[in-house]
C-alpha cells in the first residue's frame, strides 16, 4: 500500500531491498550513549559518503539505529553490506557494533520517502532472523551471486518467518573464499530427531588385544540410543567404515549426515575400564561436552551395563542442554524441527513458569511448520494438560478444549501412535475425568508400543486414581525400568510415589516422593503425595514444611479447587489427599 503523503511513487521490478540494524542498540546506549550515538553517526556517514557513491544504490531511510537501502544490482548490495559489516567491527579506538542484515529480491513500489511491497517485508523478516554480525539473503539474491567469488554462501534451508504464510529459503553470506565442506547443505526442517554418530573408541594406552572393547562400548551405546524416541542413531557398521578413514569430526558428521558425533578413548587398568568421551556438534570443530566414566571390564558384556547407561544418559543430557541453549538464543523460525521438539519437551517438564511458556511457543511454532506431524500435536495436548494439573490455568474450560483439540488432531493423523494414544488418554483421564475411555487409550498405547514408557507411566496414574494400588505400582516400576535415565525421571518417581500411596506403602511412597522433589521442587503433584505420606507416617513437622513448599508452587490452592480439577477426587486416595491437605492447613 502506498502512503498518500508520498507525492510520487512507481512500481519497479527486481529491486534489491536491504534492511539493517544495530543489535541491542538500546542496551549499548544505556552503557555509553554519547559514544554509541557518535559511532553510529560516523558509520552512517561512511555509508552515505563513501560506500553508496560507489554503487547505484540509495538510502531510502534511516530508522535511528538502522537503515533501509535499495539497489538494482545484488552483487553491489552484497559487497556494500560486507564492507559495512567490516566497518562495524571497529578497532582499538572505536567500539564494535553488531549489525544484522536482511536482503531480498522483489518487485516494489518505490516512493521518495519509503519503499513498499511483500518483498520489503521479507527483507525485514530476514534481518530479524539473522544473528549478530550475520547477513541473510533470500533465494532470489542467492541466484544472482557466484558462491566463493561474490560471497561464501551457506544454505539454511526453509525458514519460517513471522507473519509470512509459507517458509522461504534463506542463505547466510560472508566474505568470499573457499566454500566450507558443509556449505549449501539443505537443512531438513521436518526431521524431528537429532542424528548422532557414535564412533568406536580408540585405546589410549591399552594393549592391541583390548581394541575390541572400544567397539563394544560404541555398539552397546548405539543399541541403547536406538531404544530412545528422542534420537536417531547411525548404524555401527557405517560408523566403523568412516572411522577407518582419517577424517576430522566435521568431515565425519558430513559423511554420515549426523548432527552430533560422539568419539573418545579408553584405558584398561586392571579390572577397571575408563572411557573418555567427547561430543561435537556438526559443522563445529570444538568439543561442546566431554566426560570421563569408569566401570568394571568384566561386566561390560552384561545386559544394561551401568557404564553404558552412564555414557548414553550423560550424552543425551548434553545434547538436550545444547539444543535448549540454541532454542533460547536463536529466533524460532531458524531452528530445526528437532530442536523445537526436543527443547519444548524438556522445558515443559522443568515446570519453571517462564520456561514452561517458552515450551508452548516452540510447540506452536512446530505445529505451524509441520501441521501433519503427530508428535507436535501430542505434546501440545500434554502441555495444556500439565498447565491445568499444575494449577496455572486461569481458564480451565478453554485449556481443556485446546488440549482435547490437539489430542484429537494427533489421533486423526496417526490412530495407532503410542504417543498420540497416551496423550489422548491423559486428556480424557486427568482433564475430562472419563477414566474408562482413558484406560482404553492407555491399553491401546501399551499394546501398540510396549516400549513407550510414558504409556505405562500414565496408566499407572489411572490405576492409582481408581484405587488399584498393586497394578499402579507394577506399571510405574515398569516405566522406570524402561526409562531409568529419562530426563523426566522426577515425573516417573512422582507417579511411582502416588502408586505406592494407593497401595498403602507410605514409606516407599515417601522415598519416591523425596527423590522426585530433589530432582524438581516445582511439581505440585509430587509435593501433595509427599505431604500425605509424611502425614500418614506421623511426620507432621516435615508435612508442614512440605505444605509451605506446595503453597509456593500453587499459591491459590484450596481443598475445593483441588477436588474440582483432580481426576481422582472421587476415589479413596483422592479423598485421603483432600482430607490430609485440609488437616494440614490448606484453606477449604
Structural class: alpha/beta
Number of helices: 22
The description of the largest β-sheet is: 8 strands, mixed
> What characteristic shape results from the CA principal axes?
globular
N- and C-termini, Cα separation: 59 Å
Mean pLDDT: 86
Low-confidence stretches: 1-5, 178-189
- Cα radius of gyration in angstroms: 29 Å
> Quick one: how many beta strands?
14
Fraction in helix: 40-55%
Strand content bin? 15-25%
Can you describe what's shown?
- Helices cover 53% and strands 16% of the residues.
- It is built from 22 helices and 14 strands.
- It is globular and about 85 Å long.
- Helix 15 (453-465) runs parallel beside helix 17 and helix 18 (506-519) packs antiparallel against helix 19 (524-536).
- Mean pLDDT is 86; it is low at 1-5 and 178-189.
- The protein has 588 residues and is an alpha/beta fold.
- A hairpin with a 7-residue loop joins strand 13 (272-281) and strand 14 (289-296).
- It has helices spanning 25-51, 74-88, 118-129, 139-142, 211-226, 236-243, 249-256, 306-329, 337-350, 353-369, 374-389, 396-413, 418-431, 435-448, 453-465, 469-482, 489-502, 506-519, 524-536, 540-553, 559-565, 572-584, and strands spanning 10-22, 58-62, 66-71, 99-110, 115-116, 135-138, 152-159, 168-174, 195-198, 202-203, 232-233, 260-269, 272-281, 289-296.
- It starts with 9 loop residues before the first strand and ends with a helix.
- The strands form two sheets. Strands 1, 2, 3, 4, 5, 6, 7 and 8 form an eight-stranded mixed sheet that branches. Strands 9, 10, 11, 12, 13 and 14 form a six-stranded mixed sheet that branches.
- The longest helix is centred in the first third of the chain and has 27 residues, at 25-51.
